[in-house]
Structure formats: C-alpha cells, structure tokens
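Supplementary Methods S3. Complex input for the pyridoxal-5'-phosphate-bound model.
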Amino acid sequence: MPHPSELMSDKLQLIQRWQTIAGELQASDVKLLVVSKYAPDEAVETLMQAGQIHFAESRPQNLRDRATRWPECQWHMIGPLQKNKAKYIGRFAAMWHSCDDIDTARAVAAHVSDRTLPVLIQVNIADNPEQRGINPEILTTFAEELSQVDGLQLAGLMAMAPKDGDVRAAFRHLRNLRDQLFDGRFAILCMGMSNDYRIAVQEGSTMVRLGSTVFGTGRSV
Ligand SMILES: *Cc1c(COP(=O)(O)O)cnc(C)c1O
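Predicted complex, serialized as structure tokens:
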C-alpha cells in the first residue's frame, strides 16, 4: 500500500497536468478528449470531478462499461470495430471516430435509436497500408455512402499521424480533405495525440485525443 500522502500527490499531479493541458487547448478553442483506455477507474473519476466530460475508449466493451457507469460523461469510440461489437457503439457512444467500413457503419446504425450518432471518417493519411482508415482517393465516395445511412450523421474527419514520415504534412493533408469534403461548412477535424498534438493544433485541429501526456504515462512534449 502506498502511503496516503503519495496517493494524494499522484492525484494532484494528475489534476495539475490536466488543468495545464485543458487550459492550453481552451485558449486555442480545441476540444480535449481524454483517452482513458489505459487509465484506471480512479484516475477517470479524478478527472471527471475536475471537470472533464469527454473521454475516449478504444475497446467497445470498455466503452459500454464506462458509459453505463458514468452516463454523465460523453464516451467516444476511437478504436477498430468489428461488426459483432457494433451494438455497444450504436447504444453507448457519444461519437464514433474510427469509421472506415460501410458494412460496420450500417451495423452500428441498426443499434442507434431515438437519436443520431455523430460519426467521423477515419482517413489513412500515412500512406502506409498497415495504418487504418479510408484511402483519401475514395473519401468522397465513402462519405456519400455514409451520408445515406439513417441514424448516423457525418460530422468530420479523424486521422492518426504517420508512424514514420512528415507529421505536419500529413495533418495539413487531412485539413485540406476536410475543407474540400465539407466545402467550408464547419466539420470536426480530429487529429493530434500526446506526442504530436501541438503540431495538429497549429494545422487546424478542432479536437485532440490525449492519453499518456494527461495520465503521465508517456514522455511529454
Ligand atoms: C491510444 C490512442 C490515443 C492516445 O494516445 P496517447 O499517445 O496516449 O495520447 C489517441 N488516438 C487513438 C486512436 C488511440 O488509439
């Protein structure tokens, strides 16, 4: 058992990190999603009490469990999704970020009732077939198909930076795709993780997904 004063200081440090990052993002008018996929319940609860509302999970069952436990928060789905888990997202997600397959989208929509689920298309801007997402060349066609699915509302684009390569150029590419696809109308541009979010914000991100830099589990920028 850690000494109580150590626990307290961990908690305070978490709140301080969150406050600093949340303040920085608020000043740029960028929404902060706290990625809680590796965080224990106590840490999630600490941030909720500090005022964080938007959390992201990458596993459907974990999203369901946390959304059921804390319905006062908004639970975003950011991970790969198999059709047989679509019901958890249709029922419990506040937003689905990782949409890159039309059959899965229809399966999710079948479980959406009495509401419309905002969806982001995940785009592969990495030029690397091992990373997930829709190929930019078929984005327009995919967006048209998705727009016809009842129960879903296309709200913007999401991407992960290339693992190797020019991160800034990739983010700029996603921004251009968003501008073209939505023709100047507001649409979410969800890009930026712990080690690249400042670049993403400079390139026009409207929503970042931060895990390790908030929870203190990774190197900070
Ligand atoms: C895990 C994850 C994040 C958060 O990553 P950090 O580097 O911990 O900030 C963001 N987006 C997606 C899609 C993830 O899977």
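The beta strands are 31-35, 54-57, 74-77, 95-99, 117-122, 152-158, 188-190, 207-210. The mean pLDDT is 95.
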